[in-house]
Amino acid sequence: METTPTAPAIQPQDAVTQDKSITRYTVNGEEITLSEKIVTDFLTRGSNVPRADIVQFIAICKYNRLNPFLNEAYLVKYGDKPAQMIVSKEALMKRAESCPSFDGLEAGLILKRGSEIVEEEGAFQLPGDQLLGGWARVYRKDREHPSTARVSLAEYDRKQSTWNIMRATMIRKTAVVQALREAFPTQLGALYTAEERGVPEDATYEDVTQRLEREKA
Question: Which of 74, 126, 172, 215 has the fewest C-beta atoms lying within 10 Å of its C-beta?
């Protein structure tokens, strides 16, 4: 689901005092404190996440200056599938915009309108349009041609509540993150969103504030 992060950049101090293996780094002037215990207790969904995945998660967050307490990144493990690191679209946009070579983007929908296939900018479609997919172009100042992504709705539509209600918005978002990653492979190459990973909605991130309150209760 594409939402605006609401969780404050709070640090669970009890977990910090109980774990000596602390990683600290700064994001936009805010000091982020992570440890294996903090990630396990507050930044994962599911259980039995391997230690190696937690260590890698901390390293990637530090390297990419991600703030998991603002929903920019989290770990998901459900069933017998491997743990997966999920990153928000907003985090990818921040990383791209911080690059001096970033020169904007365009994105929209691929539609069947009558007998024609058209590409419209934005997420608006006419009542008679058939939504086929999304497209995006990301521009760099140091490249002559933009990085372009076109994605099929049939490949990513999970038939879940968000996709049922906001198909156009979701498929456009998927095209944007793919184009961003192609345009900035060094900065974004290992970062994927929930839509790309195919993570079920019932396994998505739990607000940090809500979880802290629940743990205290």
Answer: 126
